[in-house]
Amino acid sequence: MTKDESGQLWGQLRKEYIHSDLSLKKLSEKYEVSKRQLERRSAREGWSAQRERARGGPMSEDTARRLTEAVEKALKVVQDAFEDEKQFHRYLVKTKAGADGDLEERIFQKLDTKSLKEVTAVLKDLKAMVQEASGGDAQVRVVFEAGEESWNE
């Protein structure tokens, strides 16, 4: 699939989700697209809020409150991970051969970039959720000990 075809497919998926009653699961089955990939794209681009606006109604205050609470809990987990200086140096190592081999946690000097990328993706998803809950008006700031970064661009 070319980049242009991929862009057209995502545009079609977005349009159909916003203007129909199909769930993301049904769309993933219909278009043979990964459900998780569709969920991430939808969250990142705020499809649910767009769907609500297209239907003539904003997200309810209760839904926005529950979404915000869930995001805050998830951010706490991410914050705890960053406070552990060895978190992204931990690896599970198989200590015995075979399918039922034992796993042991070990700490190495090498940075686990895969885990770091996954956390970054989670942060982007959380940003999209906060913006969706606020109708797109929220300003998201990520603060680390060394300073502050704006993620609004």
Features:
single chain, 153 residues, mainly alpha, 2 domains, two-stranded antiparallel sheet
How many domains, in number, for the residues?
2
Distance between the termini: 29 Å
Mean pLDDT: 81
Query: Could you state the order of secondary-structure elements as H and E?
Result: HHHHHEEHEE
Shape: globular
Helix percent band: 55-70%
Largest sheet: spatial strand order: 1-2
Q: What is the strand content?
A: 5-15%
Q: Please count the helical segments.
A: 6
User: What gyration radius follows from the Cα positions, in whole Å?
Assistant: 19 Å
- Uncertain runs are none
Query: Largest sheet at a glance?
Result: 2 strands, antiparallel
User: What is the tally of beta strands?
Assistant: 4
Secondary structure class reads mainly alpha
Can you characterise this structure?
With 153 residues, this protein is mainly alpha-helical. The chain folds into 2 domains: 1-58; 61-153, no CATH class. The chain contains 6 helices and 4 strands. The chain has a two-stranded antiparallel ribbon. Strands 3-4 form a two-stranded antiparallel sheet. The radius of gyration is 19 Å and the shape is globular. The two termini are 29 Å apart. The model has no long low-confidence stretch (mean pLDDT 81).
Question: Which helices and strands occur, and which strands form pairs?
Answer:
Blueprint: H1 3-19, H2 24-31, H3 35-45, H4 47-54, H5 61-83, E1 90-94, E2 103-107, H6 113-133, E3 141-144, E4 147-150
Antiparallel strand pairs: 1-2, 3-4
Helix pairs in contact: 1-4, 3-6, 5-6
Characterize this entry briefly.
The chain has 153 residues and is mainly alpha-helical. It contains six helices and four strands.
